[in-house]
Amino acid sequence: MGDPALSRRGFLAASAAAGLGMTALSGCGGDSDGNESADGTTTIEWWNISTTEPAHTVWADLAKKFEAQNPKVKVKIVQLENDAYKSKMTALIASGKLPDIFHTWGGGVLKQQVDAGLVEDLTDRTKPWSDGLLKVSKEPYLLDEKVYGIPFDIGMIGFWYNKALFQQAGIAEPPTTWSAFLEAVSKLKAKNITPIALAGKEKWPGMYYWAYLAMRTAGASALQKAYDDKDFTGAEFVQAGAHLKTLVDLQPFQKGFLNAAYSTPTGQAATVGNGKAAMELMGQWAPNVQADSGKGLGKDLGFFPFPAVEGGKGTITEVFGGGGGHALRRGAPQAAVDFLKFFASEATDLVLVKETGALPVVPNAESAISDPNIKAVQAQLNAATGFQLYLDQAYAPAVGQEVNDSVAALIAGSKSPEQVAQSITKVSKEEQ
Asked: Of 345, 313, 89, 98, nearest to 223 (Cα)?
């Protein structure tokens, strides 16, 4: 994959220094002049993953606002659910044609696209205005000190929980240690309350558990070191799998979780949003998706960071997560750059923070945060002593996919903790 140390400049090193304390595929790509019609109107195609409300409508409205400000530009929006988007993008990368503007999480996946010559270098074209964005929010999109993406969100994964169900089970405070977390799961089960909702069909939500447990047992920096060394067989990584197996053995998930999706009416988010499970491990977007696919919990919703593991090298202040950004296909028209500038403006960021619960990337937009849970996430981020980007984005695509697949197999009972570590190591050695 070239130099894997490049992705180290994702959140890990930067966080401490920054004190982070469906459209036909053939419709994409092509030459920039192919976007212009006879009347001089430029059409730019924008692929994103904002399929749930309120973001779905808010983003469409922002596109219309941009068009109003730029009468010679039309924005064609393609909105795809997370897994469908990743699948379509894999096909587009193989074809060598990407949309003008497309969602990116940065890291190793973006690097693969850059190495294939498919992504525009935005360093000079965005410098006058992108320098003002929060430094840590930009880190996942920096490769060889060059800018290949512009952030619109920054955040972290943590537990979203139902305060009323915790109270029913006699859990006075959110757990801060793994043993206390397991005890909370047992207390919920004793009251016939489903402790955790999980989208087993979509493997990335399960990966969060193994990644956090690896961070807590081995320390955040160990995840990058293992990737660089192409070796995940260390004792702490096996131990992370063993901790996850202990949780799985308690049967904490909702009935039918292995076939559950994330944002469907019967999926993970809805199960929590409808009060049918006490917790989910998810990012800062969770409250909106719970409310969109279910009823939402309102004041009963709370947030707490992933617990510390007793005896582990990691701490509760080391954070796992990432943000969202936009990249441009190589040769994208100037109108696409103008759209990125518009989307990264303070005015747009205020809309995103107020209406979609996004965490700000423009410093002055922090004042717009009103939701106490989002404030709690922001406080955790500001106090973070380390940060690891999502593994299925930080690592080369095949390695990230193997993490997701192996952890899903562990959760389903078909792989042991040792086999998970061995499988990820095998693919790491093959891919790098």
From this structure: 313
Q: How many CA atoms lie within 13 A of 429 on its CB side?
A: 8
- State the Cα–Cα distance between residues 272 and 346, nearest whole angstrom: 33
Yes or no: say if 157 and 129 are a contact pair by the CB < 8 Å rule.
no
Residues 162-193: pLDDT tens digits? 999 999 999 999 999 999 999 999 999 999 99
Amino acid code (one letter) for 82: N
Tokens of 408: 């899903």
Rounded Cα gap, residues 75 and 41, in angstroms: 11
- Angle 397-412/107-115 helices, nearest 10 degrees? 140
What are the start-end ranges of the H helices in 370-415?
A: 372-382, 391-394, 397-412
Beta bridge partners of 279: 161, 196
Q: Token pair of 363, please?
A: 């410093």
pLDDT tens for each residue of 124-169: 999 999 999 988 889 899 999 999 999 999 989 999 999 999 999 9
**Verdict on whether the full-model pTM lies above 0.70:** yes
